[in-house]
Specification:
The N and C termini lie far apart (about 40 Å). The longest helix has 25 residues. The protein folds into two domains: about 150 residues, Fructose-1,6-Bisphosphatase, Chain A, domain 1; about 140 residues, D-Maltodextrin-Binding Protein, domain 2 (3-Layer(aba) Sandwich), CATH 3.40.190.80. With about 300 residues, the protein is of the alpha+beta class.
């Protein structure tokens, strides 16, 4: 489903073009640091959630570039940059390096993700990925109503109505801990992979490399750049809001019950389960899984504590 945004298409086209440029430059910053000594800090006391000087340099560049070109727009970034703009309809949601663990270990599966929300609804998305065919990497990009592309090449999602054996599926372990597969789905999930970068995986889904992707609770900066990509590539995005029985629903935007856009403080906390892929695939997959009960979840947490 393509949402019609009440904004000028030329304005969105200009924003997309600008976002492509800065995403590519941020990717170049990461490539300059890749497989070189890094200054590593950890956001968690247990030595997880690393952040490197590459993350910080990429984020600083993106923030400064956006503020110079669009000084009245708001910004929300993973590593802490936050710029309020109460009078603006636009929010830039950026992840300067998605897949930090891969990056610092020398695995070339990482991304720069730049998503632009208009009144809470994703309107532009750009994702930089390293590439085996180009030393400069590539940028996956889309705007609402403008199609989806890898650089200048159109891309599209897998159109199969159910998972195919031998085709890649992104299905993280945490997702299986929260959902139960129904009869008819077990053994038909596809070739499971969890590369370690949500933005990377969603770009691969938009381009048909991954047949579909599901997530339990990524952060808003992990997915904002990829939502428009998947939609404009002919796919759908669904989410599940809690355990209220409403099931999987088409994602319309980061808005409240009255349709008003969420503020930055609310966006920072916004987490849910997601599906990205083709429409037929969405119908099959989401109808063949159900959330685990609270008792099952508690037992799962206990088991993880006991054996971790």
């Amino acid at each position: 489903m393509t949402l019609i945004l009440q904004t000028n298409d030329q304005q969105l086209k200009d924003i997309e073009s600008f976002a492509m440029g800065i995403t590519r430059k941020a990717g170049a910053i990461l490539l300059e640091h890749f497989q070189k000594p890094l200054d590593i800090q950890y956001k968690s006391k247990d030595g997880t959630n690393p952040v490197t000087d590459a993350d910080k340099h990429s984020e600083s560049f993106l923030k400064e570039a956006i503020l110079k070109a669009y000084p009245d727009h708001a910004i929300l970034a993973e590593e802490g940059s936050q710029v309020e703009a109460k009078q603006s309809d636009y929010v830039w949601v950026i992840d300067p390096l998605d897949g930090t663990v891969n990056f610092l270990n020398g695995l070339p599966i990482f991304a720069v993700s730049v998503g632009v929300l208009y009144r809470g609804r994703p309107a532009v998305g750009c994702i930089f990925l390293p590439s085996a065919t180009s030393a400069q990497g590539c940028v996956y990009h889309a705007r609402t109503g403008g199609g989806a592309f890898r650089d200048e090449e159109p891309i599209s999602v897998v159109t199969s109505s159910s998972p195919e054996k031998g085709r890649i599926t992104v299905f993280p372990r945490a997702f299986a801990q929260h959902f139960r597969m129904k009869k008819g789905y077990k053994g038909k999930v596809g070739e499971l992979r969890s590369p370690g970068s949500v933005a990377y995986e969603v770009a691969m889904t938009a381009s048909g490399v991954v047949q579909y992707a599901v997530y339990s609770s990524p952060w808003v900066w992990d997915v904002s750049g990829g939502i428009v990509l998947v939609r404009e590539a002919g796919g759908v995005v669904r989410f599940r809001s809690g355990r209220d029985g409403r099931g999987w629903r088409p994602f319309e935007g980061f808005v409240d019950g009255e349709g008003r856009p969420l503020g930055l403080s609310e966006l920072k906390k916004w987490r849910t389960s997601w599906f990205f892929g083709g429409e037929g695939m969405a119908e099959f997959v989401t109808s063949h899984m159900s959330p685990r009960t609270r008792v099952e979840l508690a037992a799962s947490r206990w088991m993880r504590r006991m054996f971790s």
